[in-house]
Amino acid sequence: MTIREALQQASARLGRAGALDARLDALWMLCETTGKTRTDLFLSSGDALSKAQDARFEAMLQRREAGEPLQYVLGTQDFMGHTFRVDGRVLIPRQDTETLCEEAIARVGGACLRVLDVGTGSGALAVSIALACPKAEVTAVDVSADALCVARENAQRLGARVRFLHSDLFTALTDERFDLIVSNPPYIESGEMETLQREVRREPRLALDGGADGLSFYRRLCREAPVHLSCGGVVLFEVGYDQAAAVSSLLKEAVGEPFTRLDLCGIERVVGAVYTE
Ligand code: GLN
Questions:
Q1: Is 224 buried (19+), middle (13-18) or exposed (0-12) by CB count in 10 A?
Q2: With contact defined as beta carbons under 8 Å apart, do 121 and 101 qualify?
Q3: Mean pLDDT of 146-154
Q4: pLDDT of 170-228, one tens digit each?
Q5: Which residue's CA lies nearest to atom 9 of ligand 1?
Q6: According to the model, what pLDDT value does residue 276 have?
Q7: Ligand 1: which of 71, 86, 142, 188 to mutate, most ligand atoms within 8 Å of CB?
Q8: Best substitution site from 98, 184, 196, 269 to test ligand 1's pocket, by max atoms within 8 Å of Cβ?
Q9: Per DSSP, which regions of the chain are E strands?
Q10: 174: alpha, beta or left, given left = phi > 0 and alpha = psi -120 to 50?
């Protein structure tokens, strides 16, 4: 089968299976299978796939047809210009979260600050901050030992210096304080979980379900953060598209005067506060 035929057949199959970007998905999987860029694929679209490539492509196609997210099938997702390994043990890093990451990096800059990422998942935030701010001391925690395996692998592959700890929010940190605490906690309302896109439902529930009103992790984080913030320390949270006001008031009560940052769609996606004792 030629690359062109493989692309046509796979696009049709994925379309029938309900994939929203069937042709694009097929293209990415063909790139992964052949090791070619998209441009090279078009230039050599008359070439035949080898038997091994054909088998590998078919295996990927079947996983995607069955509703697995493209990123799990490919095994990677780019975030802040770095390629992270991802699989069913971790949430797939979202472009939205780059807003939080950019804000964190701008605040740390070249200073030797202590940074904590709570609920690191794939390690996308912690690793990207560590790579951009080499003087920062970055710690990342997660309640999922499985996620920590993925995060550690990402840090190692990308050459980032991050200390990883198995911890339910702050439990493993006893009395340690940080200059910056970032978190993209689970924030979907429990009742919404069943209505999510089928691909999102393949991601760890632990990384998505934010309790009855979606805010339970922000409540816990706000209650527990002050003990772990240095004076003048900053908290930055990613929030859902309609949660900025609610999370701002939680932060105002527990930490300090809140501020927000917009994502690329103009949605208040990051809420933060500076800790004043
Ligand atoms: N942004 C994710 C989504 O909409 C949710 C991530 C989270 O709960 N932290 O699927």
A1: middle
A2: no
A3: 98
A4: 999 999 999 999 999 999 999 999 999 999 999 999 999 999 999 999 999 999 999 99
A5: 186
A6: 86
A7: 188
A8: 184
A9: 76-79, 82-85, 114-118, 137-142, 162-166, 178-183, 229-238, 258-262, 268-274
A10: left
> Among candidates 82, 182, 76, 179, which has minimal Cα distance to 128?
82
CB atoms within 10 A of CB 232: 11
In this structure, which residue's CA is closest to atom 7 in ligand 1? 186
Q: What is the pTM (predicted TM-score) of this model?
A: 0.95
Cα–ligand 1 centroid distance for 168 (angstroms): 19
The residue ranges of DSSP E strands in 43-193, in sequence order, are: 76-79, 82-85, 114-118, 137-142, 162-166, 178-183
Q: Could you tell me the pLDDT band of residue 149, with boundaries at 50, 70 and 90?
A: very high
**C-alpha–C-alpha distance, residues 105 and 110, integer Å:** 9
Consecutive H or E run containing 30: helix 22-34
What confidence score (pLDDT) does residue 277 get?
A: 76
The per-residue pLDDT for 55 is 97
pLDDT tens-digit readout, 46-81: 999 999 999 999 999 999 999 999 999 999 999 999
Whether 265 has a pLDDT exceeding 90, the answer reads yes
* CA 218 centroid distance within chain: 18
Tokens read off for 27? 């293209």
Q: How confident is the model at residue 233 (pLDDT cuts 50, 70, 90)?
A: very high
The set of residues, in sequence order, having a beta carbon less than 8 Å from that of 226 and lying 6+ positions away, is 254, 255, 275, 277
Q: From the alpha carbon of 96, which atom of ligand 1 is closest? A: 1
CB distance 188 to 166 below 8 Å: no
Instruction: Please state the atom number of ligand 1 nearest to the C-alpha of residue 91.
Output: 6
